[in-house]
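dumping this here so i dont lose it
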């Protein structure tokens, strides 16, 4: 028995269920595997139940006055992380270059002076 929540609807119809969403936002959720959709032809279809679950799981409300991205690092810490990553990459590159030079030096036969 198919209920109204399980009936297939287009993404445009599904976007009408959630304030502030449009079909493109739902497509982005689908591409990130956050929304279950069906594609029997060329159009993406979903159900009301799938939309409600996806929005509950992937969209969280932040109380007024609370920072909107409290769990995300700020720009300064991101800059520090990027700098540390660049430094670590440079050190690894230098170690690799030194190892390659040492291996090449071992592989070459010693030079003898021409007499």
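and the seq i came up w/
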């Amino acid at each position: 028995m198919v209920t109204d929540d399980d009936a297939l609807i287009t993404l445009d119809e599904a976007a009408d269920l959630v304030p502030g969403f449009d079909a493109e936002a739902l497509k982005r959720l689908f591409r990130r595997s956050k929304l279950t959709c069906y594609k029997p032809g060329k159009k993406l279809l979903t159900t009301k139940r799938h939309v409600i679950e996806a929005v509950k799981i992937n969209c969280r409300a932040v109380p007024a006055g609370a920072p909107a991205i409290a769990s995300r690092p700020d720009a300064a810490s991101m800059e520090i992380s990027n700098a540390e990553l660049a430094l670590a990459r440079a050190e690894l590159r230098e170690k690799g270059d030194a190892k390659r030079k040492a291996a090449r030096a071992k592989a070459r036969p010693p030079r003898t002076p021409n007499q």
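The mean pLDDT is 80.
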